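U., I forgot to send this yesterday:
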Amino acid sequence: MTTSTHLVYLIALPLLSAALLLVLGRIADKWGHLLATLVSATTFVIGALEFFAMQSRTGASRAATQKIFEWISVGAFKVDATLLLDQLSICFVLLITGVGTLIHIYSIAYMSHDHDRRRFFAYLNLFIAAMLLLVLGNSYLNLYVGWEGVGLASYLLIGFWNQKPVYATAAKKAFVANRVGDVGLSLAIMIAFAQFGTVSFDGVKAGAPHASPAALTAIGAMLLLAAAGKSAQFPLQSWLGDAMAGPTPVSALIHAATMVTAGVYLITRSNFIFDASPNARLMVVTVGAITLLFGAIIGTAKDDIKKALAASTMSQIGYMILATGLGPIGYAFAILHLLTHGFFKAGMFLGAGSVMHGMNDEVNMRRYGALAKAMPITAVTFGLGYLAILGVPPFAGFYSKDKIIETAFNSGGTKGILLGGATLLGAAITAFYMTRVIVLTFTGSKRWDDKAHPHESPILMWAPMVVLAVGSVASGFLLSSGSALVNWLQPVVNSQNVVAGEELMKPIVVSGLALGVVLLGVLLAIFKYRTVPTSAPTQVSVFTKAARKDLYQDSFNEAVLMRPGQKLTAGLVLTDYKVIDGIVRTVGWTLGAISTAMRKIQNGFVRSYSLLMLLGVLVLVFTIWLVTL
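Result:
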């Protein structure tokens, strides 16, 4: 383990710049966005330098730590504010700062007419600082601080235009859903401390092989709950679609490349817990499989371009969560897909923002059509991301998603068949809804009215899209060539170059099946949407109605979580009022009654005092008489 003195700058620079922009207020309006972008680019440079320095070292010395200060010291419980940069966290540092800087550049033009652009960039840098703390903390408690910081920053960014009630509501919904997940992380930390006496990653890892299966399952379940909240997984995924209320760069940053991947990071970082608990791992793959299908199905019915991409994000994160439940090799493939997804999905979100920019903020794809001619750069960059998410070779998704499908099939027995089938079905539906987005937006005949004047976005918007499109093409090959990422992550997640056990399907067979179902999905979408009405049809199947309503996720959460919670709260309030407060009120009433009665003894009248004296004399005489009998 190497000691570093530079890691703190990764967090301090964006955090200080955010504070500066918020404190200075309108003074920084003219240059705040430039400072924020420069700081974000600087953190990327620092991260790149740390990456090259890490490559120059070997073995255990590759990981670097920096102790900032002693945080908590209570008896035997000690937690330092310490940062850890290893092979896993550096992947996230480069993704967060690299893609984050591109989104900053894009936002300079996208938010140019917004009165509060400075505040927007301050929130962006606050988010980046929190996300970096999340992935650099060397303990669950340090991670938790960044985890909550990300929740706060996302609330501020999603509700940035909170003058619109629906946007403010969307921000609150995301915040509350994340808080439910955060309860899971809090409980996991408490159980870990009770079981191991420490909350550091190294301490928990060392104690995991000796812990009871029940404790490991409990910790794993609570970590999964936390991941479900932050990464919009079943049953806490309903907030992600509404979160598209925020400015489009927010969608690209938070909902494609950073925040929603935090759950994948948490499970991967906690691999020693899930490797020691088969029950926890089973829960992970179950949640991932359900979510990847849920998200894909929902994406087929969304006419809002950003919500269609949000459903896609939910589904792709489902692939990653499923992969983390498939053992050591699955962790590496989950991170591989996370990194490639960061390129092609961020690029498509920025492409959606470019379309909205050229279409007067119209988001309904049924009112687009033929935009490829008016916006060629946007169409090409978006199209490259489309090919990447479909998994068409040699684009990025081919190298990452196909590996997850292959590993799912080879996980063995009935489980392998079910998981492999779910991943293949998800790939087919992905091809359908993403082709639907392409057809409705860029091809066919124009369906916009005369008030719209679609045009290509300025260079500050399309240049980042071009860079991300290059990543959509090349990142998969570069990261998987020679098992590069698998070998890189091996010291952290114990990944191996081959899948253990007997292969149910060879890679060439899996790729053939994947491409076959993708082609089927593409053809179905082209056939179905060869003609498109400007309004969504009202007579639709029950299946389509359910997909339009997000498969009744809100209804489910209301029935299972909200209403019982309200009843429980009402019962607790009643108990508190009738029992707890009742006891207090009874004691007070009793003392009051006694005081009122005794107050009559001292009323200030001479006759009353004379009567008391007489009674006292009589009592005294009577007592003496009894004694002398």
